[in-house]
Amino acid sequence: MGIVLAIVVLSQFPFYYYVWNWPQSWVDLCGKGRDPSKIMAYVGHLLKIIQFISLFSVSSFHWPPPFYFWPLFAFGQFLNFRVYQLLGEAGTYYGVRFGKTIPWVTEFPFGVISDPQYIGSIMSLLACLPWVPFQYILLWILGYVFMIRVESKEDASTRAKPLN
Asked: pTM (2 decimals)?
């Protein structure tokens, strides 16, 4: 069961790696007239739901949470919400890789925190340590660190051409 859960926890990262490195094949797969960012969001949400279900299966909940839960979880979710608010779906889900124009954003947390969407997710995961076994949280965090490294290098020549 542990190996299956580890695979499920890591399931989203090969998908994001594929889409980041080969965006044209993702656009082609989505088809003409379909928004690749929106389809990517749907797939990403489905993978995230499967991840959460797998973590719930090994979690042991108790109340009240430790004192550090609330600030870590709240600030992590604030960062995620703020990134989505500033960039929208296309900015959050690789729109620039699909040939979309994403406005340059300098408001907080950009310019202050590098990769705020991943830092926010890591903070939220750390907040859940009292309930979820450490190895699953660590594995998920390592996946985010991997994606931070992957997304730190972008070759503009590999951006997709829209099918329209």
From this structure: 0.87
